[in-house]
User: Fold this.
Amino acid sequence: MSLTEPAPSEAVPAAGPGRRVALVLGAGGMAGIAFHAGVLAALEEALGWDPRRAELVVGTSAGSITATGLRAGLPASDLFARVTGGPLSPEGRTLLAPVDEAMAAATAGVHSAGGLGRLRPASPGVLWTVGRRPWAMRPGALLAGLLPAGRNSTEVISAGVDALSGGLWPDKRTWVCAVALDTGRLTVFGRSGAPPAGLGDAVAASCAIPGYFAPVMVGGRRYVDGGAHSTSNLAEVAGEPVDLVIVSAPMARAGSRVAVPPGWHALTAVGRELNRLQLAVEARRVRGRGVPVIAFSPTADDRGVMGLNPLDPERRAPIARQARQSALRRLERPEVRDRLALLVA
Assistant:
């Protein structure tokens, strides 16, 4: 579990009533949701810090689903139990019962088309955008526009989110990151100045993996996965009035040594390295404003359990358990524990 610690000159402030913590939850599919559950459970168990208290939660794709759960009132222990099949608290059972019903109904009414749509770009207009302003277009956003549109519906996602949230945005600050398909620009739903959107639609848009899920219409514009811009979108909290940022980044990697495995694993390794570098760049931007950043990413052991398919539901429980164990081992280090213990109110 990678822990990007604050520089020696940076003091991690206490996260009591007067302190403000931003929690950034990155993309990663089902594997990402499981990874978040493991990391948050470890923080709660080892430090007594309740992630529901975060001043700001920023979610991208899988992270937006976890953010919804936290803001609805699910403790980290219930997020972990949900993924691993463990017993839920009475509060968790009450909150999740309508979610299961809504998702079951949506699943029954949705036909999974599978595969790609017609083999033409979902948004060929992105070429015009990149031609006019090549520096303003992220490679992932360009690829999202050039891939054929996905055919699978996100209705199950939006139905589950709306059942959990009652269709309302949380009272506490919650940002959901998505990419406008036709322009390639990042949209942060829930932030001041963003287009109005229902929470279910915003999360569905944030989760709409290009080429797999159909783009989600919000306010007459098509949106896809926020990970097409950045798998964490950590930089969006730069300049925000917070005292500490905690990041869970399932699509990056821990450690500084690069080892490229053979076969398809090599492509995954290269992707994780690029995500690690992007995360480091964004962390420097936030820390340049004087705000410490602590980031968790998968270790080699974590990545071995995660495998190649982030959408494999059979891996969720082992991923969450492995991520929790990795985080707990890291939190046993005195120099880490002593700093993060200040999170306890």
Observations:
- The mean pLDDT is 87.
- The two ends are 24 Å apart (CA to CA).
